[in-house]
Amino acid sequence: MTKDELFKGVEVLNGTAVLKVSTNAMEVVLSPAKPGTVLKATKAELQQLLQEAGITHGILAYPDIEGTSWVIARGKTPEKGEDAQIVFDVEIPADPKDKRIICCVKEQQLARKLPPGPGVPGFNVFGEELPAISGKWVVFKAGEGTEVVADDMTLRAARSGKLELKNGKICVIENYVFSGDLTKDIGAEGIHFTGKRLEITGSIKMGVSLQVDGDLIVKNDVEDGCNISVQGNLELEGALYPACSRVEVKGNLTCTSIESPRSLACALLEDEKAKKAKKEYDHEIAINGDLSVKRNIEDGVRLMIQGSVSVGGIIRSEKTEIRIGGNLTCNSVEKAYLFVEGDLIVTNYLLDARCSVRGDVHATQGKGMIAGGILRAGRSIEVNILGNEANVPTEIYAGNDPVLIQKYEKTVQQIEELSAQLQKITQGLKTIKALEAKGPLDERKAFIKQTLKKAMLPVVEEFHAQKAVLASLETELANLSTATIIVRKTAYMNTEVHIANTFYPVKSDLSELRFYVKDGILEATPLR
């Protein structure tokens, strides 16, 4: 029996039945030759028929009866492979109520394709293989801020920012507005925003840990106990409550005020060990750029600013410490400690403050008063009023650069230590020389002699180097004596005026004076 004959139908079993193969060669059917005839065949007869017809695959153990016919063999249909899938490599909140801020960085892989399955080949009843059917490919839905890699198998971030799903597309948002207050439960392990700009329409609540690679804008307050790091600028329209906090800003910080610690801040000290370890300042604000405060800097704040500072109100409290790399312009200072690398400009008064300023000091606006405390300026001082009617003790120093003085004192100490070392080495060599005069040195004493000679050269070189540094510092310190102190209105009694190493006690109220050093003596002459 040929295939063509089988497709048409071949009489078998002594003409009582017809053996036929379906046109797609997927079924072998045995039918009665004449209507009304009942098929009769043994298993051995069926096997014989199939063998003679060349049917090798899909032979059924028992025929499937369909009406008056028997299906005695059935091929296997090819299986379709699974369609390709897109697998996310990042977590993206899909629920609008999920306010977590989950970000990525530029070129980070966001999703990838799993290729479609190849499927499983089939075969017809003649044993001929039927090709498998592969699954379908899928297409990436690339949203804003994403890109498909050239091989079309990977979706990655084209920029850094917050991950979002919009209309089924992955998007990277680099300028993101967070509505409401940012609380600790939104990012229990801390939040890292990698985009250009994060804006929070409410406040940053107590205990939040937030890292921002770009700029941060907060429309309200930053509460106590936060850990905030900003690579760009921090613009705070409300107040900064820094107790138990760490705030670091690489750019500039602008805020309305820096407030005193709130009572709730103590709740962040979790155990007795933490309480014992608590320092006088339990928070720190570090700014690489400039700081602008519209109102006040309140009690117990510690600030370190690389740039300049502008404060519209008062810097207050003896527990407040501010170190400034540039200039400071402020309305008033009360009892706080200030260290300013540049100039200090006061638009109202300094009261009982402790200020070290490397540049000039100007207090000629508003009251223009310096009363109480100690003011040290590296260059000159100009003030309206020095001291007050209550004759509060007031000390001011011009030509008194704290950094130069510290370097000078350190250099003097180093020279004294080097001199002591040289004296010991010289004495040791002197003792060895006396022993050598009595006879040859033994091995141990010879070794000591060699060691002392070897040690002497670097100490001598360092001694002369430090002497040169000292001479340079002495010249710089001597130049400070050219500084002046100008009192535009009144210098009250009980005020001490210093320029460089000279001293002038104000024993009675004086008006409109210029203090300067002449021939090593501090003199005071009228301005007019």
What does the secondary structure layout of this molecule look like, with pairings?
Layout: H1 3-8, E1 10-12, E2 17-21, E3 27-32, H2 43-53, E4 59-66, E5 69-74, E6 85-88, E7 103-104, E8 109-114, E9 122-123, E10 129-130, E11 146-148, E12 154-157, E13 161-166, E14 169-173, E15 175-178, E16 191-193, E17 197-200, E18 209-212, E19 215-218, E20 227-230, E21 234-236, E22 239-240, E23 246-249, E24 253-255, E25 257-258, H3 272-277, E26 284-287, E27 291-293, E28 302-305, E29 309-316, E30 321-324, E31 328-334, E32 337-340, E33 344-357, E34 361-363, E35 369-377, E36 381-386, E37 394-398, H4 402-438, H5 443-479, E38 485-491, E39 495-499, E40 502-506, E41 510-518, E42 521-526
Parallel strand pairs: 15-17, 16-18, 17-19, 18-20, 19-21, 20-23, 21-24, 22-25, 23-26, 24-27, 26-28, 27-29, 28-30, 29-31, 30-32, 31-33, 32-33, 33-34, 33-35, 34-36, 35-36, 35-37, 36-38, 37-39
Antiparallel strand pairs: 1-2, 2-3, 3-5, 4-5, 6-8, 7-13, 8-12, 9-10, 11-12, 13-14, 38-41, 39-40, 41-42
Helix pairs in contact: 4-5
Describe, in plain words, how this protein is organized in 3D:
The chain has 528 residues and is α/β, with parallel strands linked by helices. The protein contains five helices and 42 strands. Helix content is 18%, strand content 38%. The chain has a 26-stranded mixed sheet that branches. A five-stranded antiparallel sheet has the order 1-2-3-5-4. Strands 6-8-12-11 form a four-stranded antiparallel sheet, with no helix packed on it. It has four domains: 3-74, no CATH class; 85-120 and 131-173, OB fold (Dihydrolipoamide Acetyltransferase, E2P); 175-267 and 280-342, no CATH class; 404-447 and 460-481, no CATH class. Strand 9 and strand 10 (129-130) form a beta hairpin.
